[in-house]
Amino acid sequence: MSGRQCITRSILFSPTRHAEPVRPCLSQLRAQVWQPHLPAISQTQIRCYAGPPSRPGPLVFGVGAPGRGPPPRRREQGPRRGRARDNQDDENPDEELGYDRRYTTAQSFEKSGRDRLPRDHEIKDPRIMVLENGQIEGPLAPHFVMSKLNTAEESLRMIQPYFPADKATGKLAQFPVCQIVNRKEEHLREKELKVQEKKKAEEKIKRKDVELSWGISDHDLKTKMKQIGGFLQKGMRVEIVLGKKKRGKKISREDSLSVLTQVRENLEVLGARHVKAESGEVGELVRMTVEKK
Q1: Is 78 inside a domain boundary?
Q2: Does a structural domain hold residue 285?
Q3: Which residues contact 158 (CB under 8 A, 6 or more apart)?
């Protein structure tokens, strides 16, 4: 046996070789420690508004163990790039106003001249309170709430602007309140409201009925049309009924058609429009409902 083989054999089978504990590799320890977890969500939360699970810091082996020395110092990091969006969520109070200018207040809304409060990505406030199903959450960042919504069916609507703090009365500031709205349900509600408003408007409009016979004379027809014109000027809705006169002489179809033509021409002169389509048969019974254009 050569000298090199003797040295190698003595090292391999030396009784002191296994005196030190076997150190597991970094991947084995990280597999044991790295257990992804979910944050605890309270029962009052409607959606999972909690952030993503935090990653554990770097593993430091042998901290405080004899002969290991002090733990390695972490290098100080400068400002991280690509964090402009998070910085947008930080409030930057204005020295003159005392609060962040990005908040939508009642005064700023009136100056804007808009007919509604901002919604969805129009909301630029740093923090908002979210109302859904009668429960409120927050304060939260608007872009974070939008990331949790199904924008095809849901919308974020501001229903109350920001109220700054009042030092004189000691009243604290109130974050703007936004509500999550289902687009389909909102469309159905608006449609029902329009139908109800239309019915109410029709009920408020006064209605007048005017009866004409197919055998009416030219003088009487002019008087009736003048009366109809007065009703239209007052904003009334007029229903005109042309029919046969009881115990009257029989009127030919040509004479009946002539009367109907005169009525139509006079209505055009008066500036009337048909609310309902004209119905009935010439010489029998014809109904038309008109109002002022």
Answers
A1: no
A2: yes
A3: 104, 117, 118, 119, 123, 128, 176, 177, 178, 179
